[in-house]
Design the sequence.
């Protein structure tokens, strides 16, 4: 085991703490937005994708019940819900959380005892990244088609 100087450990701890507080803040804001409007109303783009709709509703209800989501679950809720208007930046938040999970846990430990889960393996990080970008592309194309047809967005 390689020992780092005390000041390095203290700095890493404050960065990790800041990332964890940011994660709690993201989940709390998302929970409040899910409580303020019906969960089924936020999954309108998923009507023709029942498996994604069921996944979104299950994770959203967990979050509403106060159960913290792991990075993949949080990413799914942020990218599967209808992200227009104020929540249009939720996909960017999902990317940010994925990057912070990779940065905050990878160099220091394989097990994050505060959350009770392991950091995502590299293969799952890549799949999560591709899923985020695919969902952004599909949503942007869908919204653009609505706009071209004259529907208000």
Sequence:
């Amino acid at each position: 085991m390689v020992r780092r100087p005390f000041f390095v450990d203290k700095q890493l701890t404050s960065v990790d703490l800041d990332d964890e507080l940011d994660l709690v803040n993201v989940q709390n804001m998302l929970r409040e937005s899910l409580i303020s409007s019906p969960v089924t109303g936020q999954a309108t783009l998923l009507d023709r994708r029942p498996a994604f709709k069921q996944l979104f509703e299950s994770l959203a209800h967990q979050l509403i019940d106060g159960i913290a989501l792991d990075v993949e679950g949080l990413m799914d809720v942020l990218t599967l819900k209808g992200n227009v208007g104020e929540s249009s930046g939720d996909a960017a938040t999902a990317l940010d959380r994925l990057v912070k999970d990779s940065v905050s846990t990878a160099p220091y430990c394989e097990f994050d005892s505060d959350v009770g889960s392991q950091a995502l393996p590299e293969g799952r990080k890549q799949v999560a990244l591709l899923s985020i970008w695919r969902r952004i592309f599909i949503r942007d194309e869908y919204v653009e088609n609505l706009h071209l047809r004259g529907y208000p967005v």
About this structure: The mean pLDDT is 76. Residues 60 and 77 are 7 Å apart (CA to CA). The chain is about 65% helix and 5% strand.
